[in-house]
Amino acid sequence: MIRSLILPAATALLLSACAQAPLRGSGDLGLVVERASGSVQIVETSHGQALARLDGLGDLSHASAVFSRDQRYAYVFGRDGGLTKIDLLKQRIDKRLIQGGNSIGGAISQDGTLIAVSNYVPGGVKVFDAATLELVADIPATLLADGNKRSRVVGLVDAPGQRFVFSLFDSGEIWSADFSQGNTPQITRYSNIGKQPYDALITADGRYYMAGLFGEDGMAQLDLWHPERGVKRVLGDYGRGEAKLPVYKMPHLEGWALANNQAFVPAVGRHQVLVMDARNWQQTAAIAVAGQPVFVTARPDGRQLWVNFAYPDNDRVQVIDSESHQVIADLKPGPAVLHMEFTGRGDQLWLSVRDADQVQVWDPYSLKRLTRLPAAAPSGIFFSSRAQQMGY
Amino acid sequence: MNTCNGVVSLAALLLCVPVFAAPDAQRQAQLKHLLAQDCGACHGLYLTGGLGPELTPKTLAGKPRDSLIATVRLGRPGSAMPAWQALLSSEDIGWLVDHLLQGAPIP
């Protein structure tokens, strides 16, 4: 009797399992942006393979992605103002909208319910419900002197206490938008923070927000434990009086490196990686490298840093020892290395080689290439492990 | 010694020849790639703007060719636009500017 019940139940279970993809998690998934074709690939790091390609994401110049806290969804921010929510498990676009004219990146709130996007046109930040992508708040940036345009917004990050912090490129400001009291944010504005903040970072504990300045030397730093102390300048004296080299691609501060109580950031207009003591933010060294650094990315254990470069040195990657500050490897992965992403625990480094139409997987300990995956002019690589990291 | 000098000046002469010629097909392909990918990093893949301004024929209309060439060659102090003269020849820059003015096709 019992047996005759179990058998059909088991058969039904088996049948339903056949009809669907087998159950899997999403902690080892990621996205590779294929910039020129408006597509992304869903990749998987446990076996180093691509699972699917999704098309129709629009202009993906400078596209980036953040992940829902359950690591099921990715939110992709495109240059054309497109905001696309991707279901990594069903391998399809869940929702998509054009929220602005020209945008540069986004962030997800501490509690995972809000998605913020920073826009060049119209200059400002828009905040959306992470589930529905309905508009929750619109934060226009400072109106510029011409009376038409608003300042472009860069360096948008999430911060503890349900805040978003961002920088205004044209008006030289840092703003904090606090959503802890509901969907009408409380905005705090810091002005005269320095000329042309071009990108920003937040420390892993969410304490220090630091905007790199393009229009002058140094970085603007806001201590979020003590916002009442205002914005301070760090690295203000480096390279003073020296002529800058041309910068053919803006450095990025995302993925910046904190290792061994030192912070490593790309210099602007100098072929150097700058080192600061992360306790007092004084500069301690400048490491000579092969070109204008774009990303300075620490292996998660902090022992080594991987650095890529702006055109025309973008075929090289240098590896720096964070303790000795020596360049320990000079790699040539291929033409136009645009981005590097470590797996959460740092056993693999993935890098995109745009002009070779491939993504490469490296062992960052043996410094050996493990595999190559075909991808159409790949740019950004984003792993779902970012879901649990502040500032990502 | 004289022969050596002769060779050098002949080489210099040969090097001078392309100065008056447009970039060849291969170079044009490289320049198109540079425009879409590297200029596009700031100006957008479709040249609709970003950190750098929009570079569509509509927005460039009425701007003197010479001043556009000067901007590419020397950059724009006070902005993020670098000087490209160390990497691109005058012919490259002239061709790029004409390409932009005529409307660079969307990749």
Automatic annotation (TrEMBL), chain A:
<dbReference type="InterPro" id="IPR003143">
    <property type="entry name" value="Cyt_cd1_C_sf"/>
</dbReference>
<feature type="signal peptide">
    <location>
        <begin position="1"/>
        <end position="21"/>
    </location>
</feature>
<protein>
    <submittedName>
        <fullName>Protein nirF</fullName>
    </submittedName>
</protein>
<dbReference type="InterPro" id="IPR051200">
    <property type="entry name" value="Host-pathogen_enzymatic-act"/>
</dbReference>
<dbReference type="InterPro" id="IPR011048">
    <property type="entry name" value="Haem_d1_sf"/>
</dbReference>
<keyword id="KW-0732">Signal</keyword>
<dbReference type="Pfam" id="PF02239">
    <property type="entry name" value="Cytochrom_D1"/>
</dbReference>
UniProtKB/TrEMBL annotation, chain B:
<keyword id="KW-0732">Signal</keyword>
<protein>
    <submittedName>
        <fullName>Cytochrome c</fullName>
    </submittedName>
</protein>
<keyword id="KW-0349">Heme</keyword>
<feature type="signal peptide">
    <location>
        <begin position="1"/>
        <end position="21"/>
    </location>
</feature>
<keyword id="KW-0479">Metal-binding</keyword>
<dbReference type="InterPro" id="IPR036909">
    <property type="entry name" value="Cyt_c-like_dom_sf"/>
</dbReference>
<feature type="domain" description="Cytochrome c">
    <location>
        <begin position="23"/>
        <end position="104"/>
    </location>
</feature>
<dbReference type="Pfam" id="PF13442">
    <property type="entry name" value="Cytochrome_CBB3"/>
</dbReference>
<keyword id="KW-0408">Iron</keyword>
<dbReference type="InterPro" id="IPR009056">
    <property type="entry name" value="Cyt_c-like_dom"/>
</dbReference>
